[in-house]
Amino acid sequence: MSEMLRRNWFFTETWNFKQPPPQEADEFFGKAILMCAKGDGELSQPERDFIVGYFATIGAPESMVEELQSYEGNDDLKSMVAPIPDPGIFNAIVYFAIKACSADGELSDGERKRIQRLAKQLNIQPDVVDSIYNLYQDELKMRDKRLQVLFPAGSPF
Asked: Who has greater pLDDT, 80 or 17?
């Protein structure tokens, strides 16, 4: 019950969805993001922690969260993306790939190239990828501003 409550709340509050996406989409989404994060040949612990933490937070099936904890990200990106039924989530996959790849403080050239390949496979134009990246950068600035206003003395915890 609490998993579905959390999932419903998160997707309503964060994305204004009327209902959360089907959990079946989580596996493809998570693996595609993880493969992008390994685009530089290495999956850092902060990158894996971001991906696993995100899917645990949104109420993904426990078995899938456990699989992501050890998934190596060596599958063929094209075969992983192909089964996703709704192209409406493709921009979001690129967005979360950028977030995950940046979780270790760096978006490497290899990760950028992997994201660009993913976007091309999803028929997302390069200018849209640039807009998604700029959105991510704007969100980082807004997060810093929010933290400065709400916690001017620094994190209370």
From this structure: 17
Q: Note the pTM of the prediction, 2 decimals.
A: 0.87
- Other Cβ atoms closer than 10 A to 133: 17
The structural domain count of the chain equals: 1
Type and span of the H or E element at 54: helix 45-57
Q: How confident is the model at residue 26 (pLDDT cuts 50, 70, 90)?
A: confident
Contacts of 111 (CB under 8 A, 6+ apart): 36, 37, 39, 40, 101
In CATH, what number is assigned to the domain containing residue 96? Answer: 1.10.3680.10
Q: What is the mean pLDDT of the chain?
A: 90
Residue at 154 is within a domain: no
Cα 6 from Cα 10, distance rounded (Å):
6
